[in-house]
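Sequence only, no structure available. Ideas?
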Amino acid sequence: QGQVVESGGGLVQAGGSLRLSCTASRSIASINSMGWYRQGSGKQRELVAVITSRNISNYENSVKGRFTISRDNAKNTVYLQMNSLKPEDTGVYYCWGGQMGWGQGTQVTVSS
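Reply:
I predicted one. Tokens follow.
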């Protein structure tokens, strides 16, 4: 089935940027939908952004205009470029890899 592994999280000041990567152990070209979710402390996991195999993307309202999801099928990787970060973006970010399920998550902390 394969697996996905996230990377790129870290500590950043408000207004800063991070780029998360979700790298799969198998080809993602045939996977219709992959996405990024996040879970803040004491909160439920929520969808941040999703991208289809045709590169159609959708975003949670609070990240529109700040975050960009993309996929590179040649590298079996989905990215999440996060700009103008806010403290409320803090949380563990998980990659959803379709049939491959969830990654282990990567922590993003935005300080004010």
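The first strand starts at residue 4 and ends at 7.
Hope that gets you unstuck.
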